[in-house]
Structures are given as C-alpha cells and as structure tokens.
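Interim report, section 4.2 (structural modelling).
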Amino acid sequence: MANKNISLWQKAIVIHAVMASFKKLDPRILWRSPVMFLVAAGAVLTTAIAVLYAVQGKSSGFEFHISLWLWFTVLFANFSAAIAEGRGKAQAESLKRSRESAFANRIMKNGRMEKVSALDLRKNDEILVEDNDIIPGDGEIIEGTAFINEAAVTGESAPVIRESGGDRSGVTAGTKVLSGKVKVRITADPGKTFIDQMIAMVEGAERKKTPNEIALEILILGLTVIFLAVVVTFPFFSKYIQVHVSVVVLVSLLVCLIPTTIGGLLPAIGIAGMDRLLQMNVIALSGRAVEASGDVDVVLLDKTGTLTLGNRMATQFIPAQGVTEKELTEAALYSSLADETPEGRSIITLAKEKLGIHGTDITPPENAVFIPFSAQNRMSGVDMQQRRIRKGAEDAMAKFVKDNGGGVTAEFSKIIEDISFDGGTPLVVVDNARVLGVVQLKDVIKKGINERVGQLRKMGIQSVMITGDNQLTAASIAAEAGLDDFFAQARPEKKLELIRKYQAQGYMVAMIGDGTNDAPALAQADVAVAMNAGTQVAREAANMVDLDSNPTKLLDIVEIGKQILITRGALTTFSIANDLAKYFAIIPAAFVAQYPALQILNVMHLANARSAVLSAVIFNALIIPALIPLALRGVRYRPMSPTALLYRNLLIYGAGGIVLPFIGIKIIDVLLNLFHGA
Amino acid sequence: MASNLIEVGVSLIFLTALAIPLGKYLVLVYGGQPTGLTRWVSPAERFFYKLSNIDATEEMPSKVYIRDFLVFNLWGIVVLFLIQVFQDKLPLNPQHFSAVPWDLALNTAVSFVTNTNWQSYGGETTMSYLTQMLGLTVQNFVSAAVGMAACAAFLRGFVRHSTEAIGNFWVDLTRGVLYVLLPLSVVFAVFLVSQGVVQTFKPYVSVQTLELQNQSIAVGPAASQIAVKQVGSNGGGFFNVNSSHPFENPTPLSNFFETMAILLIPFAFPIFLGEFLKKRKEGWAVFLAMLILFLVGLGAALFFESQGNPILKNSGIHNGLNMEGKEVRFGIVPSVYWEAATTVTSNGSVNAMHDSFSPIAGLVAMFNIAIGEVIFGGVGVGLIGMLFYAILALFIIGLMIGRTPELYGKKLGASEMVMTVVAIVFPCVTLLALTAVAVALPVGLAGLNNAGPHGFSEIFYAYASGIGNNGSAFAGLTTNTPFYNLTLVAAMLVGRFATIVPALVIAGSLAQKKISPENRATLPTASPVFVGILCVTVVVIGALTFFPAFTIGPVLEHFQMTAGKLF
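Predicted structure of the assembly:
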C-alpha cells in the first residue's frame, strides 16, 4: 500500500469525517440504524420543547442542554462510521490514482497495436506490456516472462517473476514491469478489478452486512423495542403513584437505555475490520468470508511453498568412519563449486559456514576438471590430480565405489537409511574408492512456522498438511512443523475430497491455494485465500486474495475475523451493562420529590434530579467517541482457550461496563455542579 | 424454622434424585422407545392412533407441527368454551350452577388450554362437576402434554441434522399424556386421597355449625384434578382458595409432597436435555443455573419474610412475623417454599396469599414469573424459555470468544435470533403495555382492593401471571370483569404462543443444520462460566425490563413499609 498504517487521527480524514457526520443526519441514511434514528427523533422532540419553552419564557436551560447532548450522541455515532470509511477511502484513493493515468497497448484482431486508456480495457482484451510499463488492468500472462515490481499494491519492493503457463501467471493493475515483455489477457472490466472491489468494501457504501451483523442488529432492535416499551409505559405507571414525568426526562431515559453505544459503533467495527485486513495486504471479496474465518476449525496447508521453502537444502555433513568432518566438508565443497542447482549452492553455503570461510574467495585448484551432472551416471564432481571426488545418490555412488575397488559398510547404509527415515535426502560423497560421508539434504521448514502452527492450535484450529511427498518425508515435516495431521502422496483432487470430508463432519475449513488445480478445493472451502501471484482461476474461486502471496497470512485473517466478532460482542455487553447505572441515576431522580424513601436508590448521591438526568445523557453521549479507537482498532485478541478469553472479556467489558458509568456519571455530575452550581 | 429449612433441603434432594430417572425415562418416551409401561399403555396408545387415523411413524417438518399444534389448541379453546356456556343444560351439575358468562368462559377456556389455569372464578361456586372433569381436567392433561411435546420437538432440532423433520405432534402429545402425566397423576391422586383430599360425585354437604348456622361444605372429584394440577404445572384449584383449602391440601405431608409434585417434571426436563442430546453435563449445567436462580430467589424471600414487619413488631407481636394470608398449619417456610416453587414453575397453585407476603418476597415471585417462567418453568416450556435465554446470552456474551455463537453444536444465525427476540421481547412488551392500560383506565383500577404501590403490584402480577402462564394471583384484585377477563386472554395467548411457535420454528431451522463438533475453540456449554452467564443474562434482562415497574411496586412498598407505612 502506498501509505500504509494511516494514523488514526489524520487531519484531512478527521475534517472530512466531521463534515460527513452532519451529512449523515439525513433521515434516509439515519433510518438504516434504528437506534440512532430513535435518538435523532428524540432530539427533534426535545429541541421543539426547548424552543417552545424559550418562546413562552419558562425555559430553564435543562431542555436545551439535554437536546444539545442528544444531537451530539447522533453526531458522535455518525462520526465513528465516517472516520472508519475515511481511513479506508484514503488508502483506496492512492491506488485509484496510480492507474487512472495508465495507458495500454491493446492488440487488435489484425495483430496491430492501438494505444487506449486503461479505462477502456474490457475483459478478454489482449495487451502487450513491456519494460517500465504500468500494468493497466487485472489479468493473466498468456505469453512471456517478466520481472514485476508489485510495490504499489503490496508495499514489497523486491521484484517478483510472473510467467505464462504456470501458477504464477496473475498480474494486478497498478504494478510495474521492470523487465520483460509479456502478453496479458485482461480478466476484469474496469470497475470490477480487485482494487475496485477493495475500494467498494472499504468505502462502506456497498458493504453488504454479514449474517452475524444482521443477527446482532436484530438483537439490538429487540432490546430497543423492550426499552421503548419501558419508557412509553413509564409515565402511566408513575401517574398511578401521582408522579408526573416530563417528556424531556422520558426521552433522556429512552436514549440512555437503548443500546446507543453498540448501535452507533456497529458500522464502524465492520468497516474498520475490512480496513485492517487491507493493511495486511489482503483483499476480501466479502465480509462474510472474513467473519467466517473466525470460525475456522481446520486449516489445510500445502507443504511446498507454504510450510517449507520448497527447495531441499544441505543441513548436515555426516562423515563415514575414519573420515574427519573437515575432510568431508572440503570434498563436498569442491564437488559443488560448479553446481548451480539450489542444492549445490546450499552445500557451499553450509560448508563455508562450517569451515569458517567468509566471502567468495574459494578458488578450485589448478587443472581441476568439473564433471557436471548427467542423466547417465547420475552424479557430479571434480577431478583434481589423483582425486576423483563425486557426489550423488546412494545407488549411483555405491556402483562408482565398487567400480574403483571399494565398498559400502553396513554402518554407512544405516546412516543413509536414518536420513531417509527422517524425511531427508542423502547425498553420498566419495573420493575414488573411499566413501567420505553423506550430505543430508532436507526440505527446510520456513522460519516461524512452528510458532504460527502453535498459535493456530491455541486458537483451537487444527492444521493439516497435504503433500505429494511420500509418507516418511511428510511425517517428518509434519512433526517438525508441529502439525496435527497430514496426508501424503496426495493428488491435487485429494484436496477437494478432504475438504468435503471435514465439512461433512461439521468443520469449517480454510485453505490457501494458488494453482489452477486448487480452484475446485478453493471454491469448496469456507474460507479460501488465493495468492495474488496465483492463476486467475484460483483467484476467482477464492473469497480472499493475499497480495503478498504469503501463505501464513491466514493466521492474521483468522485473527481479524475473530477480532471483529469479539469487538461487537464486547461493545454490546458493555452497552447493556451500562444501563444499570443509568437506571440508578434517572429513576430516583424521577420519584424522589414525591417519595423521599426512594432517595436510597440514589446510590451515586447525584446532586439533584436535573443534573442526574443530564449527567446520564452526557455520559451516554461521550462514551461513543471514547470508544471509537477501540472500535477501529478492534479488541485485542490473543490466542488462548475460549473460556480464558471469555473470562477476560467479561471482566473488562461486562464488569467494567457495570462499574464505569457509575463513576463516569458521578464525575460528570460533580463537574456540572461545580461550574453551574445548578 | 431450622427444621423447616431441613425439610426444604430434603425435598430438593429427593426431587433431584427422582428427576434423574424421570429425565432418562422422558428420552424413551419422546424417542419412541419402549418403556417399562409399554406393556400396559401401548394398547391404549395404538387405539388412539387408530381412532384418529394417525400414522405414528410419520414425521413432520416444523410448519406442519406448528399447524397441528395451533389447530389442536384452537379446538381445545372452542370445546372448553362451549362446555361452560352450556353447563346448565349438561349433566353432572348437582349444584345446578348456571351457564358461565361468555367473557369468563373465554378467559377460563384460554386459561386452561394455555396451561395457565388463571381462575377469575371460584371453582366451587361456578363450575359443574362435568365442566371441572371433562373440560378443565382434560386440558390439565393435554395442555401440559403440549408443553412437553413442544420441548421434545425443540430439542430434536439440536439432536438431528440435515433433516426437516422434528417429530409428530400427535404422537408426542399422546405419549406425554399416557406415559408421563397419567401414571404420575394416578399414583399421586391415590396418595392425596389417603391424606384426606375429597374425591366424590355427591352434592355438597350441608352441616350445622356450633353456632347452629347452616353451612354448605363444598366437595367433589377434587383429588384427581389436584394430582394433575400439580404434576403438570397447571395450578388451577378445585376450590377457590386453591391449595390452602383443607380438602385440597389437608396435611403437612400432603403439603410436602404437593410441593414436590409441582417441581418434579420441571426438574426432570434439564436432565432430559442432557440425556436426549447425549450431553449429560450440559443438562446438569442448565439444571444448575435454574437451581441457583431458584435458591437465590427463595433465599431472598425467606430472609425478608423472616424479618417480619416492623409495624407488627412495634405493636408487640412476637418477631413481627406476619401470618395473615398464610395457613398457620404450614407456617412461614413451607409457605414461602411453595410460593417460590409455584412461581418458578408456572404452576400457579397457592397455599398462601401472595399479596400478604413481604414486598420483597412478592418481588421475588413477580420476578420469577415476569422473566418468562424459565427457572425450571412450566413442564417443557420452562426449558424452552431457558434455552431462549441461552441463545441470547451466547449472542451477546458468546461473541466475545470470536466465533459465530453456537449452542450444542448448532450455529446460531439471524433466523434463530429473530425467533428468540420474538419469544423474549413480545411477552415483556405485552406485560408492560397491558399493565399500563390497566393502571391508566378506570375499569382497570375499579377492581383494586389496595391503593398505592401494593395495588400496582396486584395489577402487574395479574398480567405477569397470565403471560407467564402461571395462573396464580397476587389476590386483592377482582378480575372477573369483562376488562380483566379479556385483557388476560390476550396476555395468556401471547405468553403461550410467542414461546412455543418460535421454539418450533427454531427447531425446524436447527434440524436442517449440520452439527459442528465440539473442539478446543468452542465455548464449553458444560462449564461454570456457561452457568454463570445464563444466570446473569436472566437476571439482567429481567432487571432492565422491569426496573421501573419493580421500583413503583414492591421496592417502593418495601421502603415505605420500613418507614412505617402500609397499604
């Protein structure tokens, strides 16, 4: 992202949000949140009363103050949604700008080129992109290879290779070709590209409510109906015991009781969640998928590229009997000097490390002859004077040694077997008839995978690996990474089968994929993350796209999904818990004049009836902006058992929600009376 | 006092011990499996199915189940209404009672069909033997069986998956009556007769009193009706003063066992939940939540009742204990224990006058009823109500673990939320609205005996009792007027149907969902924290909804009383 981590209170965004809060007073917009609509209706009513009293000359200021704070309540709620939208918009804008100016070389039917604006590109158009061109639209490379800088989308400056045919053929609008010439087939109309979808998601206007959000809104509506009934029946009840309650107090009671805190912050929580996801460089194509990721029970992981680096690397030199490690290491190093394969390079790296050599100052001895790897003899090496150093697979080397009059001992065979059993690949190093030892090659687990898998487990999520490797290799990698389960020698179709099997057991399954043969499984999974570098088919089948093509991102996605739900639950709990204190502020205030016995309910010892009601209303209004940062940031989530998590959040938002307003209302009451002496 | 408390403890231990086998037995009954009684009962069961042309193996989707449930109750109301308005022309009317007026007949019909058993009338001065037996007693059985059937169907929504079927209403109804209510009532009726409860078709007895006055002593086929009134959380008495009448509840022993009969089936239902879902611990968690709420209420009521009344104390009465409205032969503790039992279970039979309790004991009773009879609650429907609170709790609090809320392996979505909100909000709003109408209108205030907060409590209690399908009265309010009869009809209908219909809709929706396996990420529903949030949700929703009402009623009265003012 061009400017990631946009600070919470950037000046331009705040100014824009303030203006938007007033625009959102439009009843047609307000109506979307019944709670806030009700507050606004109450504000209109009390304002009318305040004006009427002022005209009649019997105004005490009380009605005016209440009205003012009711309007603030609505504005604060509007502001929270506006600032959440504003942050997302600011991020999306920079992306938009990068491609509006872009041009494209469209290949016409007759094979000639025409220069068109990026906005004129349509699906299935074919374009030619060359060095230093900006890619004008989402597409798939159908011909050629290119080095591409994706910094504009991912913020990652190291260029990546994209090429036709494989699983790395996708390109994104806004990224830049550094070198290479590729033919790209456009796969999205303007306005429907990932970036456009991302903009729509964060701008909020087209944001579809998730099932969870809808259910919570129903709950909030239900509570609102109850409290509306409480307040509407209240004057009848009190009239029965000869107490008259004014309309202004009734409206105040209503606004204090209905869940304004969660009602006001609910839209901001969802928008901010999507926004946080975007900061992680993940584009979600639906909010539903993000929240579903919080429910994931099983994560299906590919071995290659996800858990491991995908290349076998030298990890250890094991000398044969009578050979020093140094001798073996040197021999291995010489034999690999001309080996350009990743395995060969990894041997050099390891050997240098072991021998304490730094830099590249290793020169092969004079008249050394390098023997490159060939399919016939299946070995490579170097001839230096008398020495004929070779390295290769066990069977090929056994034959080489035998031909030179040597042999392989039983102990040595055991070492080889052990390496295979551990999932490694043994590479035998010999010198003429002498067996020097083995280089152990292993598919190396990526740094931090263990920790991440551990975190998944703490969240209660099983991680399952699926790989084409044999049982032994798979078992060893699974054990090393700390996975819960694995499936070896699996064909790509197995993924789909496996997902269906888990889903039939009632599990929610997440999976990450990039290849075309992953697409059916991605479409079946509940949460499907496609690598941005992956094929178009895979990206279309998924419901999220990771711009960084980093498979461990799933963990962050799950966390954000959970955070959104936790934040909603926490603020709902807090909102309801708050009501207790507000009752204790307002009910005694309504009755004490007539029934002094009820003074005992005035546990906060609020100064007088009016300041009690006003304090409750002010607290109710101020708590909304006070909680905006929490709503935007989300309640912190740490992987722990659900019971521990619940205790923690209940303590903070439940118990805290009960206690805090007692303190807050009391403080406001003291301040009011300090300044006004009312 | 201490020995009485021990009695309460013994009774609760007995009840729990009995509830366990009964809960397991219910699994057999509603699982369609053979029970120990099958040999004797199944011929009758098959006979009923044949007579009404029911295919016992046919399963219903929730829509059909709901339709049949509504049809059955509608006919129940019509028939019971007709029996009353024509009782003067029907047999078995030795006292020659005249036809019941239409508003009272409607009220009574709805009252018995909805398992409320609110009685705006005095039984021994209004209803013929035929009406009591063919009308009221029949509904005592079937209305209880309907509640249990609804709960069984509701729980099937959790047990089953990927299906629309939630059982067969007629089979559930029939089996509930034949295998559960009838056997329990027969045993209990025989016991009651042994204690001196009357059971006769003879006319009332006329005797000469010591003052040489003639007194007519009401008798009748009481024992059979009383047995089922307690067992099936009905509560409608044969006599006006209900279980404080010596012919309904003659001895301390009968009182002891009648209290247990009130609580027995409601105690068994959470056990049934655990056994039916094969989640025994989850059943105990719900049981525990109910027990805690019950004991806290009972404890508060006992405490304030034993404090006595400062005004009585000042006038020199020992301890200031108030015995007005209580039976001296029972005493304070058994009266309060009964009060708590009858109000938590939506039973509604009384052995003391609830408006004579101390204001806070009255508040406990009101709270128990007004939250919707979910602390054990009425047979079957009590558990349904508690599970509604569980759904609500999981939605508010359960979200805080960062997963879509789920209950017993079923994910809860918007449709479940809508129905839960209807089931919880609709009755609460109706209660507040009807109370407001009654206190605002002269016709509502006309029936009051007492002024001030106490009068308010009487009206609030009446509607709460109607909506909770409890049927007990605070007393002191004359409700046999067209206004009260008809508004109470509305209350009772809302209370009953806004609970059962949403439950069946949810059952239908849940039955179609997959069961997600319990794992380390799900909130354990058999844990102390679940028990805690369930209790807290019930208390908080109740407190927030009724804070003003309770303040104006019992709370104000309490503080006025301590200040020396009575109503």
